[in-house]
Write a structure and sequence with these properties.
The chain has helices at residues 11-20, 26-38, 43-55, 59-70, 104-108, 147-156, 168-171, 176-183, 199-207, 242-250, 308-319, 325-328, 330-340, 380-406; strands spanning 7-8, 75-77, 87-93, 113-119, 135-138, 164-165, 189-190, 195-198, 223-227, 237-239, 256-261, 272-280, 283-292, 344-351, 357-363. It is an alpha/beta fold. α1 (11-20) packs parallel to α3, α2 (26-38) packs antiparallel against α3 (43-55) and α3 (43-55) runs antiparallel to α4. The chain is globular and about 55 Å long. The relative contact order is 0.11.
Length: 407
C-alpha cells in the first residue's frame, strides 16, 4: 500500500520562537493568507496559518482554520535537525488549541529525531497503513475537546504495531478533579480537593453559602475558581465572599468551573514559590521556579527577568535539585510518579508551611522550552538540555526494547 501523504510544516516550536524573539508574524500571516486566497497554499502551511492566528491572539480564527485543513489532511512532519534521523516518532494529537497537545517539538528540536504528528479525529478513519514510525506517543491532553481522540486511540491500542507512550487511560487521570482522588493519601504530599461545578451552582452559592456542602464538606471562603479547561492561569481567581462570586461571574462567559480550597503557601519571607518539575520515565527534573509576592503566580507574571536575586534562587534550585528538593520530597515524588504512571508529564507544585509537597496540577501539555534569553538566564539552557536529552534517550530505549520484543 502507498504511504499516507505527510505535509511539511514550520511547526509550533519554530513559530513560537520567532514570536518570542520579537519577529512580527503578521507579514508571514498575510503571505499565507494570499496563498490561501490564491489556491496555492500547501497543507502544512495551512496548519501553520492556524498556529500563527493563535500566536497573534485570535484563537477562534486559528481553530476555524485548523478545522478546515484537518477535514482533508491530518498527517504533518515537523522540521528535523538532520537529514537521516536516528529515530522516527509518531505523535497522536487531538484537534484542539495549541495549548492542549504536548508541545513535543520543543523537546525534539535538536535531537536528530524525526517527528510526525497525526491528528486523530472522530469522523476520520485511521490512515491505512499507519505512518512508518519506531515509537508513538499520545500528546492529546485530558481536556474535554480531546476526549474523542483519546477514546479512539484507546480502541486502537491493543493492535498498535510499535511501543506507545503516555497511553490515553493514564492521560485521562490528569483532570483536576480526578487527580485529587488519585494522589490522595501519599505521605508528604498535599493536594486540595477539587470539584467540578456549574455556573448555576456558583450563582446559587453566591446567594447561600450553605450550598457549598453539596459539593465539598470542607469548602469555605476563600476558595479558588477557574474555568474548566483553562490554561496558564486564565480565569483563575480567589473568591473571598458571596459578592466576589457575583463579580467573577459577571466577567466570565463559561458554564463549567473547577473550585478548590485556597491554600496559603507563602514562605516565611512572605513570598510565594511555584515550582515546575518534569518527569521523564519516572525521574523528576527541575524545570523552573517562579518567585513572587502574589499567590496566583506563573512564570510570566513573576518578574524573574527583573530580579537577580530571584534568578539566583532559581539557578540554585536547578543546580541542587537532585540533592536538595528531590531528596526532601523523595517519598511524595515517588508516590506521585508511581500513581500517575505516565512516561512523560509535568507537575506544578509548591511547599506548604509544614513542609509538604503541595500539588497544583499535573499535565502532559505544559510547555518545556529553552527560549529564555541566555544573557539573562544563562543557567536555563543547560538545565533544559538535560531534560531534552533524557526525553530523547527514553524514546530511543523504549523503541529499542520494542524491536527486541518483536524479534
Amino acid at each position: 500500500m502507498a504511504r499516507p501523504p505527510c505535509a511539511e510544516r514550520m511547526g509550533l516550536a519554530r513559530l513560537t520562537r520567532m514570536a518570542v524573539t520579537g519577529i512580527d508574524l503578521r507579514p508571514l500571516w498575510q503571505e499565507l493568507i494570499d496563498k490561501l486566497i490564491g489556491g496555492t497554499i500547501e497543507a502544512g502551511e495551512w496548519l501553520d496559518l492556524s498556529l500563527i492566528a493563535q500566536l497573534l491572539g485570535d484563537k477562534p480564527a486559528g481553530l476555524a482554520i485548523q478545522h478546515e485543513i484537518l477535514a482533508s489532511h491530518r498527517l504533518f512532519r515537523s522540521p528535523c535537525a538532520v537529514q537521516n534521523p536516528r529515530l522516527r516518532v509518531l505523535a497522536l494529537a487531538a484537534a484542539t488549541d495549541m495549548g492542549s497537545n504536548t508541545p513535543i517539538e520543543f523537546l525534539l528540536e535538536d535531537s536528530g529525531i524525526e517527528l510526525t504528528t497525526l491528528y486523530v479525529i472522530a469522523e476520520a478513519e485511521w490512515p491505512e497503513p499507519l505512518p512508518d514510525h519506531d515509537i508513538a506517543i499520545v500528546v492529546a491532553s485530558d481536556s474535554e475537546d480531546c476526549r474523542d481522540a483519546l477514546r479512539k486511540i484507546s480502541l486502537m491500542l491493543p493492535n498498535w504495531p510499535r511501543p506507545l507512550l503516555n497511553p490515553p487511560h493514564l492521560v485521562g487521570n490528569l483532570d483536576r478533579d480526578k487527580l485529587h482522588g488519585l494522589l490522595q493519601g501519599i505521605e508528604g504530599l498535599a493536594i486540595p480537593a477539587t470539584a467540578a461545578v456549574s455556573r448555576e451552582w456558583l450563582t446559587g452559592l453566591s446567594r447561600s453559602a450553605a450550598a457549598s456542602s453539596d459539593i465539598a464538606a470542607d469548602l469555605a471562603f476563600p476558595f479558588i475558581v477557574r474555568p474548566r479547561g483553562s490554561h496558564a492561569g486564565a480565569g483563575l481567581a480567589k473568591l473571598d465572599d458571596p459578592a466576589a462570586i457575583e463579580r467573577y461571574l459577571g466577567g466570565r462567559q463559561e458554564q463549567e468551573f473547577f473550585i478548590s480550597p485556597f491554600v496559603d503557601y507563602a514562605g516565611s519571607d512572605g513570598l510565594f514559590r511555584k515550582y515546575r518539575i518534569v518527569v521523564v520515565e519516572g525521574r523528576p527534573y527541575a524545570c523552573h521556579l517562579a518567585v513572587a509576592d502574589r499567590w496566583d503566580i506563573w512564570y510570566l507574571n513573576a518578574g524573574m527577568s527583573l530580579s537577580a536575586g530571584k534568578r539566583l534562587e532559581e539557578e540554585t534550585f536547578m543546580r541542587t535539585f537532585d540533592t536538595d528538593f528531590a531528596q526532601r520530597h523523595r517519598t511524595a515524588l515517588a508516590g506521585m510518579i508511581d500513581r500517575i504512571g505516565l512516561d512523560y508529564f509535568t507537575v506544578d507544585c509548591a511547599e506548604t508551611k509544614d513542609g509538604s509537597l503541595l500539588i497544583f496540577e499535573a499535565d502532559n501539555t505544559a510547555i518545556v522550552h529553552d527560549m529564555d534569553p541566555p544573557e539573562i538566564f544563562p543557567y536555563n539552557a543547560p538545565q533544559m538540555r538535560k531534560v531534552f536529552d533524557a526525553f530523547a534517550a527514553m524514546l530511543c530505549r523504549r523503541a529499542a526494547r520494542g524491536r527486541e520484543k518483536a524479534a
